[in-house]
Amino acid sequence: MPSKLAEIVDEFAAAPRDVVLEMLLEYSDAVPPLPAGHEGHEGHEGMEQVPECQTPFFLRAEVTAEGTVRTLFDCPPESPTTRAFAGILAEGLADASPEQVLAVPDDLYQRMGLAQAISPLRVRGGTAILGRLKRQVREQVGG
After folding, report:
1. Domain ranges within the chain, ordered by starting residue
2. Is a pLDDT exceeding 60 seen at residue 41?
3. CA-CA distance, 138 to 133, in Å (whole number)?
4. pTM of the predicted protein model
5. Share above pLDDT 70 across residues of the chain, in percent, rounded to a whole number
């Protein structure tokens, strides 16, 4: 797992439950804006919807020519918990290699202690986001 993501996991795991929700809200603001041409419904072309999320959530993972993974996320601002999952992944996986992304444990959000702070339905949505992201990377690296 990339060291930046490991740091985020450790911060959440060590935080008291009431602080975890505040931390999630901070990460909901960490989602980078979509590049030009990806805004709006037409911009979701090439992005995958995650139906397990209670809110419209779209993502795309691209393995760049430099050998890093670029992530794109689109989630409405009125869904701060779901946006927080995207913000955590965007920040934690910045400049990560495909191998590092694929090494992220599937139970990432449980390791962060989120299962004690948010509903199981939301954790399942976050797990689905990570699973789709990893699958897209796997498909691009041929494994």
Report:
1. 3-141
2. no
3. 9
4. 0.91
5. 94
Which position has the token pair 């694929």?
102
According to DSSP, the residues that pair with 62 across neighbouring strands are: 70
> Please, how many CA atoms are within 13 Å of residue 21, restricted to the half-sphere of its CB?
6
Angle at 80 between CA 32 and CA 57, to 5 degrees: 65
What mean pLDDT do residues 44-55 have?
89
**Domain 3-141 of CATH type 3.90.1010.10:** yes
Handedness of CA 97, 36, 54, 84 (dihedral sign): positive
pLDDT of residue 92: 96
pLDDT given at position 40: 60
C-alpha 41/C-alpha 125 separation (Å) is 21
CA gap 21, 10 in Å, rounded: 15
